Amino acid sequence: MTSHWIETEHGGLHAMCWSPPGSAPRSPVVLLHDSLGCVGLWRDFPERLARATGRAVVAYDRLGYGRSDPYPGSLPHRFIDDEARHGFAALRHRLGLERFVLLGHSVGGAMATVAAGRHAEACEGLITVSAQAYVEERTLAGIREAERAFHEPGRMARLARHHGAKADWVLRSWVDTWHAEAFRHWCLDEALAEVRCPTLVIHGECDEYGSLGQPRRIASLTPGGEPTLLSDCGHVPHRECPERLIEVIRAFLAPPASG
Predict the structure, then answer these.
(1) What does the alpha-carbon distance between residue 234 and residue 247 come to, in Å, rounded to a whole number?
(2) Does domain 2-133+188-253 have CATH number 3.30.200.20?
(3) What is the largest CA-CA distance in the chain?
(4) What are the mean pLDDT values of the chain's consecutive 10-residue runs (259 residues total)?
(5) For 238, what's the count of Cα atoms within 13 Å in the CB-facing half-sphere?
(6) pTM, 2 dp
(7) b/e code 194-231 from CB counts within 10 Å (16+ = b)
(8) Domain assignments of the chain as residue spans, ordered by start
(9) Contact, 48 vs 246, CB < 8 A?
């Protein structure tokens, strides 16, 4: 496991890389985290994924999250598109990623989709996990419920363990951006139409932040088959059913059988 610090125009980004021992060189998998996430909140998923797939796995904290520098101001409503143009592009340049696979969780799945289209010449595969393709009431209701839960004793302190003094900004950016009038009509359709690489769409059947209409929209507009639905699983498969999630991803990324 190696650590990287990536300087950008607006601040520094923290990244980590897990490389499986004794594996043949293959394009790495780059992870994009959710609205409250960071490298640390992937827990042991990156290491386990690296071992299962035989690929290096890279995860980074977006600006304003985890160990990266604070975001300079309020999160703009174009933040999903911006990540492909700025944060991910800086990571790719700094680490010299000529080819890669993108895996995004929740809003990170939307960011991965935009990046897959923008970097189409280099992206070998796109994996979305619990991603949103448009704003729906189920998502907004789930966010409101989560916001109320953060009033419980100790909840903000736990968030601060991962984001430090940025924790309040992280929470407010999630709640306020998704409920903003300017974000109400956001959808991912245009970005989905730009995806050219094989795509794997994964969604928990019990996802509290997105109906099954979300993965079906993503799958219908990208190269791939029907979405993979995980039974008895909610919004965070890498914590709720990591073995099943990793096996689905491993099979998707496995090289074709020879002969």
Answers:
(1) 17
(2) no
(3) 60
(4) 93 96 83 98 97 96 98 94 94 96 98 97 97 97 95 94 97 96 95 97 97 97 94 97 98 75
(5) 24
(6) 0.95
(7) ebebbbbbbbbeebbbbeeebbbbbbebbebeebbbbe
(8) 2-133+188-253
(9) yes
